[in-house]
Structure formats: structure tokens, C-alpha cells
Amino acid sequence: LVPRLRPFTSTVFAEMTALAVRHDAVNLGQGFPDTDGPAGMLEQAKDSLFGGDNQYPPGPGRPELRAAIARHRQRYGTSYDPDTEVLVTAGATEAIAAALLALTEAGDEVIVVEPYYDSYAAAVAMAGAQRRVIGLTEAGDGRLELDLDAFRAAITPRTRAVLLNSPHNPTGTVFSREQLTEVARLCVEHDLIAITDEVYEHLVFDGSEHVPLATLPGMRTRTVAISSAGKTFNCTGWKIGWVCASPELVAAVKAAKQFITFVSGGPLQPAVAYALEHELDWVEGLRRDLQEKRDRLSAGLADAGFDVRPSFGTYFVTADVRPLGFSDAAELAWALPERVGVAAVPVQVFTDHPDEWKYLLRFAFCKQNEVIDEAVGRLRKLG
Ligand code: PMP
Ligand code: GLN
Predict the structure, then answer these.
(1) Which of 96, 282, 355, 379 would you label with 108, given CA atoms 20 to 30 Å apart?
(2) 27 lines ligand 1 (CB under 6 A)
(3) Atom 5 in ligand 1: which residue has the minimum CA distance?
């Protein structure tokens, strides 16, 4: 393995899920739902699979899916041409990697917010670029915000791009319009490309608003906006994602993408198109359910003795382990499946500064209520 990829030989999700299986633990580690997506979408996939629709789709994606993605994006007031400004990818993960491979190279710097989704550091490394990590700060109400001073300080003449995720995995924070407006201003001032990971765009709670960076002044032409069907329609295994950007940026991402996977998920693409057109009411129901599940798990964790942090979106809530007498969430996370039969992920594995994020565990609440309750019951034994 080449040195630049040596830090990335395994993923915490694969390891934690394997450990959960070994100990028959309730898996609140890896974020995936335990119920299916909308029936109409599944029917459509079945029709495609049995309707002889099983060969390569077109390189940029099925036209009806690109049209549906463009129409869906109109909800934010931005128009994209489905033929030149939309690209279907193998999940958001490929979109992120292809964008970095296409737009950055050795010597370039990419600003990444920590804690960061695990694929970001690996994808930046695969591109040969360098990550410049900035952190989050706590606002008065406990909400985590971008550290904009750190952002300004991280920009150098070599900075090429910023990689931003909101709603944010693993913390569940949602960046405000005000903060994102300042990010946009800095991107324009320093001629940066923004790569925005919006896979949790629909999963925001308590009236929080998802603001796509591309909708802010000067950003439409310099943003690679990425999302995916997995979280919106409970189909994380389908790996149908997409990019919306200017024709130049889409052409660049496509140049990389076409030699990574060429195409993927042909028979699933019409089903995702169908879901984007017809199942957004179902998604609103999912959002409401997840908000209740967030409350259920947050209350249960607090009851079990954790110091629970507020979550405003995503599948995740984080909790401080110190009130239970632990001093390192990673040590606890690796022992937890065997000790009480629950799996969670330590936030520090998503950072370059594990000491600063030492006390937080991430728990997924995208699970049936009985599963959440069972996990909470087991966690009570810790106290
Ligand atoms: N970005 C974030 C923040 C995620 O949490 C995930 C997946 N869980 C992804 C990207 C990957 O999305 P996909 O499965 O569509 O590749
Ligand atoms: N996105 C999911 C999470 O954060 C897991 C995805 C994966 O296993 N790579 O838990």
C-alpha cells in the first residue's frame, strides 16, 4: 500500500459492525435504517429488474433520474440543466472522491471541517492533496458552529477547495444561513471551489433549515453540490448519488467518475427518479419519525447517565461519557459491545485531534423504537 493510503486500511463502520455482530450487540454504531423505503419506489425497482432493464445505464445517469434530480433541486430555488449540470454517481461517496480527484492535485490544500465523515480524509489523500482541518465551536445554546476564525486562518495561496457537510455527521449540527453566507463570501474572495455533502438534506429537526451553499451569492458556479438517495429514502445499500454543479464542474467530475465505476445501479435509477417525484410526503413522515426517535434516544441516554448533546439533524446524536466515570470514549466504544451489548462510534475517530474530541460517543437513532429501547435498557447497566 502506498504511504499516503496507509492510515486508511480499515473503516470504523466495518470494524464496529463486525464487533457488534460478534457480541450480538444492538448496533447504534453504523448509521443505517432498519426499515425499508417507500413501497412505490421498491415496486418500481422490481419492475425494472424483472422488466429486462439490467444493462449499463447512460454514463451521466438515466435521463429521467437527472430530470428528477434537477426538479428536486428547484425546491431551493436553484435551476440545473439535467443534461449538462447533473451527474449520477455510485452514492455520495463516489461523488466526493471523484470531485476531489478531478479538482485537486498534489500540493493543493482542501479545507475539511472536523469531525469529518471518514471518507473525506481518504479521498483527499487519494487525490494527493492535503487536508487543512478546521474545528467547530459551541454557541450559547450548545449548538456547534463552524469556527469561522479558523476557516479564515486556514486559507493559504494553495487552498483549492472546501469540503462542507451540513446537516453534519457525526454531530447532528446544521450550519446556519448566516455562517454559510460568510463561508460563501470567503470562497468568492479566495476563489475556492466548494464541495458540499448534503446527504441529510431532508433530515432536519425542530424547524432547522437546510441551506445549500450553492444558493448563496457567488456560489452557484463554484459549488459541487452532492446528495444521495440512501438517507432520503431508507436505501443506503443502493448507492445512488448525484452531483449538481455548473457544466464545467460536472464535466470535470464526470471525467474522473467514468473511470472509477463508469456507471452503477442501472435498474435502481428509475426507482429513485420515481421516489424524488412522488415520495416526498413519505420523506416528511420519515423526518418527523426521526425527530421523535432522536428525542427517544436522547432521553434514554440522559436517563442512562450520559451528558447528551443537542442534535438538529442527520441520524445521529452525540453524548459525553464523563458523567458515567469514563475518560475516553474510544476505549469505552471498543469495550461496549462485549460489556453491555451495544455498539456506538467514538467521535474522535473522525478527527485529527482525538484529544479534543475524546469524550463523545455517536449513537444512531435511525432504528425501530424497540431497538432504541433495548439499547437504552442495556446502557443503563453502565451506571
Ligand atoms: N456523507 C455523509 C456525511 C454520510 O453520512 C454518508 C453515509 N452514510 C455518505 C456521505 C455516503 O453516502 P452514500 O452512501 O450515498 O455514498
Ligand atoms: N454513513 C454511515 C455512518 O456514518 C455509514 C456509512 C459506511 O458504513 N461507510 O454511520
Answers:
(1) 355
(2) no
(3) 169
Q: What is the C-alpha to C-alpha distance for residues 171 and 156, in angstroms, rounded to an integer?
A: 27
Helix (H, G, I), strand (E, B) or coil at 186: helix
CA gap 344, 334 in Å, rounded = 9
* Vertex 68 angle, CA 98 and 368, to 5°: 80
Three-state DSSP at 45 gives helix
CB 335 within 8 A of CB 322: no
Quote the CA–CA distance of 363 and 358 in Å, as a whole number. Answer: 15
Question: Cβ < 6 Å from ligand 2: which residues?
Answer: 11, 13, 30-31, 169
- The span from the CA of 211 to the CA of 180, in Å, is 8
Q: Please give the CATH superfamily to which domain 3-37+281-382 belongs.
A: Aspartate Aminotransferase, domain 1 (3.90.1150.10)
Give the residue from 283, 224, 282 showing the smallest Cα distance to 257: 224
Work out which ligand 2 atom sits closest to the CA atom of 119. Answer: 9
**CB of 117 closer than 6 angstroms to any ligand 1 atom:** yes
What type of residue sits at position 261?
T
Q: Any idea where the domains of the chain sit in the sequence?
A: 3-37+281-382, 55-278
CATH number corresponding to 55-278? 3.40.640.10
Are 272 and 92 a contacting pair, CB within 8 Å? no
Q: Which ligand is nearest to the CA of 264?
A: 1
- Model-level pTM greater than 0.95? yes
**pLDDT tens track for 124-182:** 999 999 999 999 999 988 899 999 999 999 999 999 999 999 999 999 999 999 999 99
For a mutational test of ligand 1's pocket, the pick from 231, 315, 362, i.e. the residue with the most ligand atoms closer than 8 A to its C-beta, is 231
pLDDT in tens, 202-243: 999 999 999 999 999 999 999 999 999 999 999 999 999 999
Predicted ipTM?
Answer: 0.97
